[in-house]
């Protein structure tokens, strides 16, 4: 788990508690090099999936971040209720687990979301498609989507 600020691979856990969502554990970590604190969510019983970003850096696959990204693309689109978003994420995560790989490129992840939005909601599809190809992280992607509104 690399520090999001300096990329240092070692951190210590300063707090752990169960997250209500998704059967996971929320951990607060502190980078051993620069002291930055960050939060990770680890699903029980699963090894973490790593997302490789376009710039070569990586981060742990996060259902919460993906959910947020999809929610923004789906803002004010009644065709996609919350359960549907969770279903999309479940299906993506299951597909990733089934490949047996523990790494995925952010572009592939974006493609997987698009496959599922296609035919479901054109506006959400276009919102997602118009930015995902350039995004380095879900955060940047979120900012880009906010800019579209
Ligand atoms: Zn650091």
UniProtKB/TrEMBL annotation:
GO terms for biological process: negative regulation of DNA-templated transcription. InterPro entries: ATP-cone_dom, NrdR-like_N, RNR_NrdR-like. Residues 9-21 have a biased composition (Basic and acidic residues). GO terms for molecular function: ATP binding; DNA binding; zinc ion binding. The keyword DNA-binding applies. Residues 1-21 are annotated as: Disordered. A zinc finger (unnamed) spans 3-34. Its cofactor is Zn(2+). Residues 49-140 form the ATP-cone domain. Keywords: ATP-binding, DNA-binding, Metal-binding, Nucleotide-binding, Repressor, Transcription, Transcription regulation, Zinc, Zinc-finger. Pfam families: ATP-cone, Zn_ribbon_NrdR. Belongs to the NrdR family. Negatively regulates transcription of bacterial ribonucleotide reductase nrd genes and operons by binding to NrdR-boxes. This is Transcriptional repressor NrdR. It comes from Slackia heliotrinireducens (strain ATCC 29202 / DSM 20476 / NCTC 11029 / RHS 1). The lineage of its organism: Bacteria, Bacillati, Actinomycetota, Coriobacteriia, Eggerthellales. The gene is nrdR.
């Amino acid at each position: 788990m690399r520090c999001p600020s300096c990329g240092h691979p070692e951190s210590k856990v300063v707090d752990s508690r169960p997250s209500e969502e998704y059967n996971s554990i929320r951990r607060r970590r502190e980078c051993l090099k620069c002291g930055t604190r960050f939060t990770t969510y680890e699903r029980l019983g699963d090894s973490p999936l790593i997302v490789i970003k376009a710039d070569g850096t990586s981060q742990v696959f996060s259902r919460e971040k993906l959910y947020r990204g999809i929610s923004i693309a789906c803002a004010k689109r009644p065709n996609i209720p919350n359960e549907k978003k969770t279903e999309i994420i479940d299906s993506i995560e299951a597909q990733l687990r089934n490949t047996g790989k523990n790494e995925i490129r952010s572009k592939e992840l974006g493609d997987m979301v698009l496959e599922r939005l296609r035919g479901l909601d054109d506006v959400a599809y276009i919102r997602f498609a118009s930015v995902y190809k350039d995004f380095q992280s879900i955060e940047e992607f979120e900012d880009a989507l906010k800019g579209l509104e």
